[in-house]
Amino acid sequence: MPDHGEPRDRLEREINEILRTSSNFHAAQRRKRTRQRAFNDILVQVSARQREFMRAIGGQSLSQLMLLSFLIILGSFFFRSIVPIAWPWLMYAGVVLFLATFTLMVFGGGRNPMAGVPRQYWRGREMELGGPTLSQRLRRWWAGLTRR
To answer: What is the pTM of this model?
Structure first.
């Protein structure tokens, strides 16, 4: 009878080993999926914050962003004794923001500055509020002075 018992035991051991490895495999797959889900959740949160940041900045004009960059640079100089570790990083952030806004102002193309402003209507007709800008008035004034 030992002949019948040993193949059965061996077969039973092999089945148990296969079941153990498959359960380990499934547990590893579950751990991998939970790690992947956690990583995806972090990425979703980061992208949501980036969208919020871009939405907040999107309402600002380039000149306001340039002013903010100057304030960041000046603030980094004034507060360098209070926070000595952060001031160079604030300075770099201010310089990068200044260069980015300057580049967009110079090479931004001929985009309409009034593109985001809603149109004004009075008695069913669109009102034209686009008078001469300050730079145009100064040019006309200067041209008038040089002709005399």
So the answer is: 0.42
